[in-house]
Amino acid sequence: MILAAAGSGSRFGGPATPTGPTKVEEDLGGRPVFAWSLALLRARAGVVSVVLAVDPRRRDAFAARWPAELADAAGLAPVRVVAGGADRDATVRLALAAVPEDATHAAVHDAARPGIDDALLDRLFAAAAAGHDAVFPGVPVADTLRRVQAAGGGVARAGETVDRESLVAVQTPQLFAIGVLRRAHAATLPGPPTDDAGRVAALGVPVVCVPGDPRNVKLTTRADLATLEARVADAPS
Ligand code: CTP
Ligand code: MG
Question: What is the ipTM of this complex?
């Protein structure tokens, strides 16, 4: 299991100093944001190891924020902390190198999504057990979507409406057969880095979607904190 936690959180307001605390270290209901998904994943049967990728300048700070209930204990998967990279794609590639050789699958999760639960993991694991080598959670898109093109003067010219019925918003965790994910990250892409499911799809490997969870919100701006506080308040801890 890979937990990507090495971002700077620029849309959140970023750290006050270049090496200051990032959004995934922010307090959320009495624990740092990253600790919520870390605690759930470590305790999950079938998860044999967690690789937590952090900004190398924040390694000690993460250790200092480690909640006591996340101390190593029987029944909890061990955590290996590694240095992340300049973008999320590079972070995942660096973390992948620390996934144990004998792992059959690897999941990639954004530490900025603390609102996952076992029911979501059940759906992902069931799809993998059914033989799907690449699985991600997706949620229906609620808003009407249109293409637009900037037209100057603070307005954009509206183009066609995009069919919402055939679209989902992509979440994490994304779960892969380990060989598929390793191959996907060894490949050179024609375009800019995409997410892991996108990398796998570029290999021609079929990717499937299971129902995501609308409460699995990614902490992106400060406004997301209130939503996520409400979410973790009903999570079993
Ligand atoms: N991430 C990472 N390494 C990076 C960039 C992002 O591990 N170099 C992680 C983030 O810590 C986060 C997840 O990828 O858990 C999703 O990224 P995003 O929400 O974009 O976080 P940031 O990149 O930190 O935020 P922003 O894009 O606003 O700067
Ligand atoms: Mg980012």
Answer: 0.99
